[in-house]
Amino acid sequence: MLPQELIDLLATYTHIPEHPELTFLIRPARLAARDDPALKSSLGASTAFWTAFGSVWSDHARLLAEGDSTAAEPVATLAAFLASLIAGSPDAQSNAMTLVEPHLRAVLVTTSSFMNLADEAFLGATRACCQALANLVTDNDAVASAYFPICLALTGKDDIVIRLLDSSDPAILLAVLVFLLNSTFGSAERSTLLAASPSGVKVLDRVLSHAATRFDGEAEQAFVDEEFASDVFGVIYAIVRQLIIHSAFPAAFAAQAASGGGFDTVNSQLMLLKFLDGYLHSLSTGSEAPAGLTDFLLATLDALSSGVQTTGKAMDERDAATCSALVLVLHCLSSVGLSSDAGRARSVECTETTVGLLAWTDAINKEQRASSEAVAWVEPEALGQLKRSCVRLLGIVCFDQKDAQDRIRECGGLTLLLGMCQIDDTNLTLREHAMFAIRNILHGNETNQALVAGMKAQYLVGPQGQIQDLPPALR
Fold first, then answer.
1. How many C-alpha atoms does 21 have within 13 Å on its Cβ side?
2. What average pLDDT does the segment 312-328 reach?
3. Alpha-carbon distance values, 373 to 251, 376, 377, 465 (Å)
4. How far apart are alpha carbons 125 and 70 in whole angstroms?
5. Sign of the C-alpha dihedral, residues 43, 133, 216, 290?
6. Which one, 45, 59, 136, 138, has the greatest CB density within 10 A?
7. Helix (H) or strand (E) segment spanning residue 467
8. pLDDT tens for each residue of 329-388
């Protein structure tokens, strides 16, 4: 089929009311363009074709908006043809952006209503339109730069991204996520727009909620191999990775907090930290963390640590979320320290805060053991994980770094760590982490070695904090 023949057919079709005929009209042209790159290129660059094509789109968008559900099937045909034409074709993407996109968006406004998203009659059309939306910005920086701000500026019923993210259909959700990924890919400006603009914050919060429901189904190694059990989760991780790479992650984290309704740490922030932990864990040895990320982690550690240790504040579910966030930040800093010597040197600044957290967990245990007269105190897993993460980070940071070794000793960290070298039935790996940390703190540091050498065992502390006599071997 020649381009002019198709243009004439489309121009004629705008005056034909029988919708099903469109499928038979478009199909030969779609198959021909798929198999003939020259034909696809010719159609992509033809303003006359896109004008006629846009006119057909306009008619069907209007019919759908007027409540004619029979227009859904031909719209699915139009969208499939559009997605095929614009895939990998900058000319076609530019023409589609000008002459078809307004009608594509109008269709999605109609099909993404609460009722229509649940209506099988609109499912095929919505899926095909979402795929076309994703293809519109793929590998086209000019179109993505022009169109992404437009999408984020939409409000109310016109906010198709937010509406489509409410879909329970995996194909629709995946296509919308690919649109967001392709819109932000390779661009610091657009990544920051998603991270920090008012509408971007809402979109990202909705995206992260989808990730949270799928996180438990993913293995830790998946971040290293980039092979995820859920395609949806994998695309969301790719979106967050754009924020990390383009230094928009700190802004995203702060913006989610601002919309958190007064909680110190909100679920969307926890999900962001889980993705950051996975990203940093996947870095190969010798790799540097993106610019500004270590500063962000150090500042976040200080802020969260201060919040959870507020004097006189009763602990509640907010503190549980903050403790989870602290564990993730500690893991991230451990990964930074393990990735390179420069990262470990930069992480020295966390030593005082980390020792302070460790002392806080130890104080809670002592306080609870003293007050639990009738029932034996069992350390909560969250508290044990926080303690273990602090000890692990200290062991990494002080490796071959005298400054860190001295700082830990001066703020009482060495004494704390020595007290954790006994077997703890509720925190089985804590002893190993503590012994590793002590080894690194003492290595090459005569002052620390002398401090330990001058210590003398006086008594044993039982599992519930009770003082016991030393065994004969230690007397």
1. 10
2. 75
3. 47, 7, 9, 11
4. 11
5. positive
6. 136
7. strand 467-468
8. 999 999 999 988 888 999 999 999 999 999 998 888 777 766 765 456 667 788 889 999
Q: State the burial class of residue 51 (Cβ atoms within 10 Å of its Cβ: 0-12, 13-18, 19+).
A: middle
Structure tokens at 393: 């980070």
CA 215-218-220 angle, 5° bins: 110
Angle, vertex CA 387, rays to CA 270 and CA 440, nearest 5: 115
Q: Are 194 and 268 in contact (CB under 8 A)?
A: no
391, two tokens: 């000890």
Asked if 132 and 84 touch (Cβ cutoff 8 Å), the reply is: no
Token pair recorded at residue 52: 């006629």
Cβ-contact 421, 435 below 8 angstroms? yes
The label of the residue with tokens 């798929």 reads 34
Distance CA 41, CA 18 (A): 30
d(CA 219, CA 47): 49
Q: Is 269 within 8 Å of 255 (Cβ atoms)?
A: no
Query: pTM score, two decimals?
Result: 0.89
Token pair for 200: 């971007």
Which amino acid type is present at position 6?
A: L
| Beta strands per DSSP E along 72-111 | none
- Give buried/exposed letters for 17-48 (b at 16+ CB in 10 A, else e): eebeebeebbeebbeebeeeeebbebbbbbee
List, as own/partner pairs, every contact residues 102-105 make where C-beta atoms lie below 8 angstroms and the sequence separation is at least 24, other chains included: 103/54, 103/57, 103/58, 103/60, 103/61, 104/57, 104/61, 104/79, 104/129, 104/132, 104/133, 104/136, 105/158, 105/160
